[in-house]
Every structure is written in C-alpha cells, then in structure tokens.
Design brief:
Blueprint: H1 9-56, H2 59-67, H3 75-87, E1 91-96, H4 119-122, E2 127-133, E3 136-146, E4 152-161, H5 162-202, H6 207-223, E5 227-231, E6 237-240, H7 242-248, H8 259-262, H9 267-273, E7 281-285, E8 288-296, E9 302-308, H10 310-348, H11 352-376, H12 380-395, E10 399-402, H13 415-432, E11 436-444, E12 447-454, H14 486-496, E13 500-505, E14 511-517, H15 524-533
Helix pairs in contact: 1-5, 10-11, 10-12, 11-12, 12-13, 13-14
C-alpha cells in the first residue's frame, strides 16, 4: 500500500523540516568538499612546483645537463632519483630544450622526448597543472632550467601522484560526513520538537481543517448578533466583528490599534480594558445600553462580548411607566367612584342642577390641565408623556407643574430621544421630590433646553458627576432590569446631539437637572417646507 501525504499539520511540517534540513546539510557538505578538493589539488601542484624549483636552482644539474648524455646511470638521473625518493614524488624529469629526458622514474624513458608539451616552461614560465602522462594522472610543476649565464638550457618537471591527492580528500570525507550527520540529527530532533509543539498548538488538525475552521469562525463572528472584540496582551484590537463595530461606533480599520485610540475615556473603555470587574457589566455607548462580559485568554489578552440591551431597557422603562399608569388608574378609579357616588346621591336627592354643575366642574378641571400642556408643548409624544407623568405624580402626592417659560414648537427632529431624556429626568425627580416637580421645555432657535427641578434633598457637589456614570444608583433595582442607566443614557444622548447634561442646586433646596440639545430642533424654514410637503400638515 502506497503511503500518502500526511493530513496533520505537525506531520507535514515535520517531513518538510526534515527534508529541508537534509537538503541544507547535503548542500553544505558539498559546498565544503568542493573547494576543499580544489585546495588539495592546488597544494599538490604547489608542492610539485616547489620541488621543481629547488632542483632547477641546483647549478650542478645545469652543468651536468650540458656536459653529459642522457643515460640511466648518468649523474642527472642519480640526482633526480635522490630528490624523488626524499620528496616521495611520482617522478622528477630533467630535460633539454628539445624535450629529451635526462632523468625519469622509468629508466627506459631516458633519452626519449617527454609526453607532454614543455614549451611554456622552456619559454621561461612556471607551470602548475593536473595532467596525464606515461605514469598516469598527476599534479605537476614545471620550471625552466637556466645555466650560470641565465640562459634557458632545459626544464625540470616534477609530478605528485594524483591518487595520493585523492586519498587525502577521501580521508577527510568521513569526518565531514560525521559532522554533517550530527548536524542532520540535531536538525531532525529540533524539527521533531517543533512538530510536537505545533501538534499541541493545532490539536492535531490538518491544514484543510484549520482553513475550514477559519472560514467558519469568520462566518460565525460576522453573522452573530452579538459584538465580539478580541484584544492582545498590550491592549490592541486583534479582531472586531461587524456587530461590535456597530455597537461601539468603530470604523473598519480598528484591528491592530489600541483601545485608547478607538474609544473615548469612560466606562465602556474601562470595561473592555478589564479595569471594571464582574459579569454582565452594563455600559452605554453611542446611545445604546450594552451588556459586556470579558474573558481573559492564556496569552494575556482577552475576548469581550457585547449584547445590545437598549430595547430591553426601553421595554423595562415602559413597564415601569405602565406600572405607574396602572397605579394612577387605580387611584383615579377610586376617585371617579367617589365622584360617581356623589353624582348619584345628588340625583337621588333630586338636585339635578347641582349634579350637572358638579360634573361640568370636574370635566373642566381635567380638560384644563391637559389643554395647558398641549398649548405649551406642541409635540404629541412629549405632551402625552407629561400628562401621563402628571397622573403618576398625583398618585404619589406630588404636583407636576409646567413652567410658565415652557414653549416647544412642533419642530423636534427626533421626538423618541426626547421622550427618553425627559422621561428619565421626570422619573428621577419624582423619586426624589417631597411635594413638587417643575418641568421647563424651551426652544432657542434650533437648540432645545430641558430643565427638571424638584424640592427633594438635592445632589451633593461631590456626586454631581458620578450620578451620570453607568451602574451607579442609590435606589434598589427592580427585578426585570438594572438601575443606574437612566442618567447615563441621558448624558450620552445629549452628547450625541453635541450638547451636555448637568445637575445643580435648586433655590430653596432640591436639584435642577439641565439638558442642552443643540440641533435638536429643525429650523423654522425647514419645518415650514416639511409641513407644506406633507398632506394635512402632519409630520
């Protein structure tokens, strides 16, 4: 059965690293041996040349070359053999200018012309080469032979047996291979160790599995309706999905940037950075109520999940308002029952005129209160909110008054945000008031100023900034939602309009909450154009 390519990442990396280590080791050994062989050849050639130069420097050799004939028992042959035996050369040949040998290892070659071309040496140049002759391949050195008058009378050629040169190289090869094998073994062990670590890091997965997991992760992160932000140990953003970008108001190039560059100082940045501890932490960002959970990772980073709880928070506040309205309706039910009993009694006594007058008086009182609000506040949502809150205030024994300075035309850009701001301010005022709450809504060109005051205990100066922080509250949380978000949401909405929210002291005791919302009202010209464009003048 033919073994296929392994699927696991660690096995593939191990094989690739072993192959690379083997290739690099083999290449290194080859690159080392190649110049070494050339260096050994060169050393042999230089040795042969040095021997030839020492023979040519002997003046006796030059005199005997001129004065004797080439014979096996001649003085030139004797001196050449003496030098050869002492230097372990393959041969020492002395020749005349015609190339005739006066000496040779093989005495039968004496008196014959040399087998290789001696012209370079006879022309006065030193020669080093690897060449083949009658005795086989050798490393050769050739030099000119000069007489006492410095005339060239012949040449000296010395050869070093090439097999000896190769033997030196072969003797070195085992040592080189031993070192190369040791390097290969170390490299293989290092590759095995790295593959084991990689196997633990990848849990034995294949490249295809990892690629599929990455694709699935991208699809999951950008498909879920929960924000996910991954941070590295230095607090830089590793990953942020589409929902987190939307909830935090981040741009598309958030990855790789620190939190301090992406988010303004505040609770949201503190929660993401881990400076606020706990689970299901509430924060407000971009006018949204978020629930954040932070989970540290093994490398010192963290993953933060964000859930949008704005709709739940609004539903909770509506539920609070509904409970208040129900309480007010129950109280008014008793009051209406008493009034009906009064009317019934007057009718049974036959006092019909008095009964009619009583009914008209009660109806006029209720109508006058609602009409006063409608005359001053021309935004239906806000006027309805004020009428409902007045009923709740009456049930609690608190008077909700509309300031004489109140005047709000029907030019509000987003009434829903104003309902959130005004409703939160009135709820807080009713909780703190002793007997009265006053509301002022005033338009100044395109700026809207909201002011809600109460005659309660007021807010100490040291707490006037802290009360606008998410999660801070002096009241017990209801079962269906948390406390400490109303005023934080008010401030964030004000900042979104480019305005501000603050609290101060009321003359005579109590607190005054002021919210300034620039550009919350459309200009008069734009409002007129919009009214003319909509049939019936409806907005």
């Amino acid at each position: 059965m033919r073994m296929g390519w392994p699927r696991r990442v660690s096995a593939q990396v191990l094989l690739m690293q072993v192959a690379i280590t083997t290739g690099v080791t083999t290449l290194t050994a080859g690159l080392f041996l190649a110049p070494l062989a050339h260096e050994i050849d060169q050393q042999a050639e230089q040795r042969a040349l040095a021997i030839a130069q020492s023979v040519a420097a002997d003046p006796q050799i030059a005199r005997e070359l001129v004065s004797t004939r080439p014979t096996p028992d001649g003085p030139v042959q004797a001196e050449a053999e003496r030098v050869r035996s002492r230097t372990h050369a393959l041969y020492v040949v002395v020749m005349n200018t015609q190339g005739t040998r006066w000496s040779h290892t093989d005495t039968f070659q004496i008196g014959h012309v040399v087998s290789t071309d001696p012209r370079e040496a006879l022309n006065g140049r030193d020669v080093m080469q690897i060449d083949s002759g009658t005795l086989g391949r050798s490393a050769r050195g050739k030099v000119p032979l000069r007489d006492a008058d410095d005339r060239i009378i012949g040449a000296v050629s010395v050869g070093i047996q090439y097999s000896n040169v190769r033997n030196r190289l072969v003797a070195i090869v085992p040592s080189v291979l031993m070192y190369a094998g040791a390097a290969l073994a170390v490299g293989t062990l290092a590759a095995y160790w790295a593959s084991r670590r990689l196997q633990r890091a990848t849990h034995g997965l294949a490249f295809a599995d990892i690629s599929a997991l990455l694709d699935e992760r991208e699809a999951m992160l950008h498909g879920i309706r929960e924000g996910v932000v991954a941070l590295d140990p230095q607090g830089r953003v590793r990953l942020v999905n589409d929902e987190a970008q939307r909830l935090l108001g981040l741009d598309g190039d958030a990855a790789g940037r620190p939190l301090g560059e992406l988010l303004p100082p505040g609770r949201t940045a503190d929660v993401l950075a881990g400076q606020a501890e706990g689970a299901d932490l509430l924060t407000v960002s971009e006018g949204r109520v978020l629930v954040a959970n932070r989970m540290p990772t093994e490398d010192g980073g963290a993953v933060v999940t964000l859930r949008d709880r704005t709709e739940l928070e609004l539903l909770g506040r509506e539920l609070d308002s509904t409970h208040g309205l129900l309480d007010a309706l129950r109280a008014q039910d008793h009051e209406h029952a008493n009034r009906l009993h009064t009317v019934l009694g007057l009718l049974e006594l036959g006092l019909t005129d008095a009964a009619a007058e009583y009914v008209a008086e009660v109806a006029d009182t209720q109508r006058a209160s609602a009409e006063e609000v409608a005359d001053r506040v021309h935004v239906p949502l806000l006027s309805a909110l004020l009428v409902g809150k007045a009923a709740i205030a009456a049930e609690r024994g608190v008077t909700l008054r509309i300031s004489q300075a109140t005047w709000l035309p029907d030019r509000v850009v987003d009434p829903r945000d104003l309902v959130t701001v005004l409703g939160n301010l009135i709820d807080n005022a009713l909780d703190a008031a002793a007997s009265a709450v006053e509301v002022e809504l005033r338009a100044e060109r395109t700026t809207l100023v909201l002011r809600v005051s109460d005659d309660g205990p007021g807010v100490p100066p040291e707490l006037r900034e802290r009360i606008f922080t998410e999660g801070w509250s002096t009241k017990q949380s209801p079962a269906h939602r948390g406390r400490g978000l109303g005023l934080a949401l008010v401030r964030r909405l004000a900042e979104r309009f480019g305005g501000m929210a603050r609290v101060g002291a009321r003359a005579g005791g109590g607190a005054v909450f002021t919210v300034v919302l620039p550009e919350a009202l459309a200009s008069e010209e734009f409002a007129a154009e919009l009214t003319a464009a909509v049939p019936g003048g409806a907005r």
